Amino acid sequence: MNEKGHSLVVTMLIITIFLLLGLTIMSVAIYQARFTEVRVEDVESLHEATKAIEETIAEMKVAISKPSFELSTPGNLDTQLAVLLPDLENRYGVKIQDVTSTDDYNINRNKLFTRVFLLSKSYGNKTVERRVILTNTPSFLKYTLGSREDVVLNGGAYIEGNIYAGKNAYMTNVANYIDNSLKYMKQTSFPTTSKNSVLFVNGSYFSCDHDKNDCYNIAGNIFQRIAENYSNDIRFQSQAPSIRKEREEFIDVDFEWTVKDKLLNAAGMETFSPEYNNYINKRIDQLFTELLPPDQDSDQDLEQDSYQSSDQDLDQEQNSPDQGQNQEQQRFVVLKSVSELRQNIDSIDRSVILQSKDSSLFFLDHGELNLQNKWLIINGDLFLGNSVNTPTKVRGNIIVFGDLTINGDIELDSTIYVFGRLDSPNVPGRTLIYNANITGDKEVVLLSRGPLEIARINEFENNLSLEPPNLKGYFYTESNATVYAVGSYINIEGGLFARGDTSSTAPDFDVSGLVINAYRGAAEKQGGSIIFTPPSSLDHKEESRFVIRHDPSVFINRGKGLPFVKKLSLIVDKLTVK
Predict the structure, then answer these.
(1) Is residue 460 left, alpha or beta, with left meaning phi > 0 and alpha meaning psi from -120 to 50?
(2) CA neighbours within 13 Å on the CB side: how many for 404?
(3) Residues 372, 225: one domain?
(4) Whether this model's pTM surpasses 0.90
(5) Pairwise CA distance, residues 567 & 524, whole Å
(6) What CA–CA distance (Å, rounded) separates 419 from 398?
(7) What pLDDT sits at residue 440?
(8) Which UniProt keyword terms apply here (predicted)?
């Protein structure tokens, strides 16, 4: 009897255990099913919110591309947006917040066409948000690297942002360089991009593995591609971009028109005003001459009263349709030296022209110069740099009718146009940036009509990292460009764009467009030769000697100094979830 009772207890205990186990399994299954259901709902809600924002952006792009959105005045733009944006909010259930005039951006909406919007949509207890910038600036500012012609990436560059190749793109794992006037090739890694980067290629793309076959030979004193060793594919190191064709229209820079536009703005004329329209179609040398005060060659009276215009004078200037002598006298102050400029900058209420019969070269090489809202026009060559241990600081926009050289430590909050000499219109201005460190709270936007050369930046520096940058700005040339970051260490926060000139090739190469050469690892000079030390893994992007990261804040920071184009475009920032 005891044995039967014991067996019954054991049997019931086993049944109870299995019952509890079954209930537990069932509870877990129900919980997981519910969790999966909630998770699916979250994912679906996130997808719907993201899709609504993307469709809103797509509609905005279509709307601003219509002829009805042709630029006239900033006020008219706001009137058009006041109709468009509420309709999009209602249609897609998104919130469109205009933050253009907030403290974070502080954009003058009465003078600029730039507008900043935050697009957001809630899902559950979270919000999807995306910043978009509406602006009338050229397309090159949207890309980290690019050219309307070919883009060649030789070696281990690290690129954060999008790349644009108007024609073909080439990738290799060899860095070409020049040492003591002799040309060399050094095997290294392929380039690396950030996870979200896009390579826009409107032509074809090719790659060459130097470990298998030589990618270049040296003939005729240039690096020439060995075409049969390139395959019709794309190669990157550890992280590659997505590959697409650019479907949006590329809005180009009309360099001469842009410089004329800025010169007239510097003279106090609003874009599209009747007075502006009387000048804008003239040749730039004629325009410059007509804007000069009639006695610009005589000694300048440097008393404060000679720089400041009375309210009556300004009223007469604004109301008079004639381009008379009194009006021309109010356009610019003409000075003969940088020292004269420094002494009087605070009392000058107009933009300044520097020109002198004694010298065509002007040096800004120490101290601080704050032009505030004035433009500085250099009729000659300009040297920017520092001759002492502290950086030279320049705030304000500059037009150089000559060549530009940047050397040493300098902080720039400027847009600079390098046009070339007015008496040699077929010789575009050249820009040389060498042994330089360009920093500051904001960036420089530098546009060179002629060749752009970046050389000997932090040469043989081996303390490598992805940040901070040593060149902060956007660098653009109408011509072709070749960049060497083999002994140099170049870290750019901004962008680099060579529009390309098919009548010539990039320096030392056989293509038109932009060529980047970058080693990955340490480099030092020993006994007249460069000694290279590769990283422990070629995947270590932190040891790239050429690093470049896009910075969309340029559209906000640079304001009226940016190149003016007659079409609107939409710059879309990263999607965030809060």
Answers:
(1) left
(2) 29
(3) no
(4) no
(5) 48
(6) 11
(7) 79
(8) Membrane, Transmembrane, Transmembrane helix
